[in-house]
C-alpha cells in the first residue's frame, strides 16, 4: 500500500487530497503517473514534480511499499 | 529558547518576531523581505488569494534553503515564515529575515532565499478575481521539469 497526495489544481480536478493504493506492478513514478492518467483527465500531472517521502525524485525513481508519493505542480509561493 | 526558524503558519506573520529570530551580537545588518498580496497584475484585479502548502515538506524545503545559504554565506543567519490560507490585499504572505556581519551578505542571501522559495518550496497560490479563479504556476505551461524534479543547488 502507498499513499498518494494531491495539491492545488490537481487536488481540485480530482476532488480528493489523497488516496491509498496497492502497487500492483507499479514500480516507478512514471508508471504511477501513467496509471493515474489512464483513469483521470489531468493535463497538469505531466508538468508536475514528484516527491517521495518529502524529497524530490525523478520519474525513474522506484516506489516502495509504504512510501508517500506527492505530486507537486509548479509552485507559486512567495 | 526553542523557536522555529522555518515555518508555515495560518495566522498573520509577525515581522518583528522574525527579526528577533536572527538578531545577534555579530550582526551588523538585518534585512527583512516581506512578500505581500498585490491588488493589480496588469489589468487584472485580485480580490484575495488563497495559499496552500504541503506543510511538512514545505518546512523541510525552507530548511534546505537555510542550508544552501549557510554554504554560500557561512556568516548569514536566516529565518523564513510563509503564511497559508486566505490572504487579503496587502497581507504579508512571506517574511524572510537575514542577519549578517555586513549588509551585502544580508541583502544577497535574502534575495537568494525568495528566488529559491519560488523554485522548490511546495506552496501554491490561487488567485480570486471578479471573473474567476486560477491556481497560479501551471496555467501557462511555461514551466517544465524535464527530470521531473527541480534543479538542485548545493549538494543535498
From TrEMBL, chain A:
Entries under Gene3D superfamilies matching the protein: 3.10.20.30
Subunit structure: Heterotetramer of 2 MoaD subunits and 2 MoaE subunits. Forms a stable heterotetrameric complex of 2 MoaD and 2 MoeB during adenylation of MoaD by MoeB. During catalysis MoaD shuttles between the two heterotetrameric complexes.
Function of the protein: Involved in sulfur transfer in the conversion of molybdopterin precursor Z to molybdopterin.
Superkingdom: Bacteria
Species name: Scopulibacillus darangshiensis
Metabolic or biological pathway: Cofactor biosynthesis; molybdopterin biosynthesis
Any Pfam family hit: ThiS
GO BP: Mo-molybdopterin cofactor biosynthetic process
Protein name (database record): Molybdopterin synthase sulfur carrier subunit
NCBIfam families documented for this protein: moaD
Automatic annotation (TrEMBL), chain B:
UniProt xrefs under InterPro entries: MoaE_sf, Mopterin_biosynth_MoaE
Catalytic activity: 2 [molybdopterin-synthase sulfur-carrier protein]-C-terminal-Gly-aminoethanethioate + cyclic pyranopterin phosphate + H2O = molybdopterin + 2 [molybdopterin-synthase sulfur-carrier protein]-C-terminal Gly-Gly + 2 H(+)
GO biological process: Mo-molybdopterin cofactor biosynthetic process
Known pathway: Cofactor biosynthesis; molybdopterin biosynthesis
Keyword Transferase among record annotations: yes
The keyword Transferase is annotated on this UniProt entry: yes
Molecular function terms from GO: molybdopterin synthase activity
Top-rank taxon: Bacteria
EC number: 2.8.1.12
Keywords: Molybdenum cofactor biosynthesis, Transferase
Family: Belongs to the MoaE family.
Subunit: Heterotetramer of 2 MoaD subunits and 2 MoaE subunits. Also stable as homodimer. The enzyme changes between these two forms during catalysis.
Protein name: Molybdopterin synthase catalytic subunit
Species assigned in the record: Scopulibacillus darangshiensis
